[in-house]
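User: I would dearly like some help making sense of a protein record. I have put the entry right below:
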Amino acid sequence: MSNGTTIPIFPCSAIDEQLNFYQALGFEITYRQAKPNLYACVRHRIAELHFFVLKKLEPANSYSICYVNVPDVDAVYNEFCGNLKKAYHKVPSKGLPRITKVNNLAEDRRFNLIDPAGNRLIIGQKHASSMPTEQEPPSRFATAFETAYQLAYAKDKPADAAKVLDLVFSKDEEATLTLQYKAFVLRADIAASMDEIELMSSFIEKVDSLSLTGAELEEVVEATARLDELKAKQPPI
């Protein structure tokens, strides 16, 4: 018996807008129907997607989500970003459509792709399995960081993520330098996503005030790369 295949069928408000976006990403149109109702299909090596028109659709309030498991999430992300740059001369990171950065969560490494109709593709690569080890319960600071990270990058709720971090910052909870570093970078990134440039700069200053050893810097390589991107967004002095 062969394995089954799942094909998401997403709503959209305009077929042409939808198809143009997915073509820009690198998908190919495999089918298009005009009557008795508008319907279209696109395909990429990672997924096949179908679309139908829902005239009363409100993209900003869409709840349509699909998880796409891939063997190399960074390769897919780089391909999509490169194609979007060619098509739009930029990588859309706000509004609709948009694509988030690749981030490491407890269960996988992923990014979110939100199309013009508000449909969300969570494209992820599962972490290699390992034997569980006994660990001490995470601190309040660590728990807050993980929660905020999930809210900001997995659930695309920056305002909620900001509240979680600001609360733990106000409690003056103890944390390692590397965890503080990651948390300040995350908070700066959240501020940038909400166009709070002055607040972003203030958290960048907090990061720069930390003195990490060479070994500690190796633990925050991804956060440092994000920090460099944020510094590029700072207005000239």
